[in-house]
Amino acid sequence: MNLELLDPLGHEYPQLIEETLEDGYVLKCKFNKRGTLLAAGCLDGRCIIWDFDTKGVSRNLVGHIKPITNISNRFIAVLHHDSPVIVDILGKDIVKTVLPTEPETREERHS
């Protein structure tokens, strides 16, 4: 099959709703590249990951204080106990990152 001749916008979409997912008011959602996971950023600060293979919630990330307004590819940045955390959804690893919130003082630099 010659993929260059296919219309990239000519996808067939379902004519009826097959499944519904409910778990809060969602502001932003995005599928992964394979279409098996759906990440949803909620108004209450939660990030819910739905798994379409099991048709259930894969992860429920809580701890963010403000609404989640953007989701990007494989990683999700959230606040966990007042510290920024980057979550690897596929590997289910939590990698904490230290982000400076206050300027460094002179005493801290020389100690």
From TrEMBL:
Q: Which domain of life is it from?
A: Eukaryota
Protein's UniProt name = Uncharacterized protein
Compartmental location: Nucleus
GO CC field: Set1C/COMPASS complex
Q: Which InterPro entries match?
A: RBBP5/Swd1, WD40/YVTN_repeat-like_dom_sf, WD40_repeat_dom_sf
Q: What is its main location?
A: nucleus
What keywords appear on the UniProt entry? Answer: Nucleus, Repeat, WD repeat
